[in-house]
Structures are given as structure tokens and as C-alpha cells.
Amino acid sequence: MEAAMDELIPYAKVLEHERLVERLADLRPVVLSATADGPALTASPALVMASADLLRCVYRLISRESFARTLPRLDPAAPPSHRQLVGILRDAALALELFRDAHIDHHLSSYGEWLTLDE
Fold this sequence. Notes:
By secondary structure, the chain is an all-alpha fold. It has one domain. Helices cover about 55% and strands about 0% of the residues. The chain contains 3 helices and no strands. The chain has helices spanning about 10-35, 45-60, 80-100. Helix 1 (about 10-35) packs antiparallel against helix 3 and helix 2 runs parallel beside helix 3 (about 80-100).
């Protein structure tokens, strides 16, 4: 897959992507632990708030991508169950992976390097 010029991104977005992947990795065990306590139970306000903030940040990063609108939003007035939250965060991880895939070099000589404006 060859990238067009509009697929180049500022290096700051690479750093933001890495930060969000780490935040998601930190939040995932908390959600899985809550799910073990009761998959159908409603997620706590703090867990919903933390997840909603992370999802807002992910959306801000990927907002120009074609798949951005598929990322669910959380409404604190209608909190999801633990099971639903696991799925929502799985979608966020997938969105981050799709973003990475859209902005890395797919040529064998430099496979996996980000395509950035700031070289």
C-alpha cells in the first residue's frame, strides 16, 4: 500500500498515538477486573468517566479517518455494562491500530516506520 501525501501526519500525532495506546493498556485490566465482578453490572461513574475521556482523546486523534465515526461515545447519563465497556474499549484499540496502519510505511525496506511530515 502506497501512501498519498495527505496520509502524512505530524510526528506529534505519533506521540499521541503511543500515549493513547499506553492509557488504553492501563485501563483495560481495570475494566476486565470489574467485568469479572459482574459482566452485566453497570460500570461505575469513575470507570465511565475515565473511559469516556480516553475515547474522546482517541476520537480527536483519528477524527479525519474514514472509520472515526464508528468509534462509540459514552454518555454518563446512560452508563454501559462492564461487558459493553470491554467491547467499546476493544473498538478503541482497533481504531488506534487502523490509524497506525493508515500512517505507516508498508514498503519492505522501511516497513513499520510512521509516515510523518516532520522528518
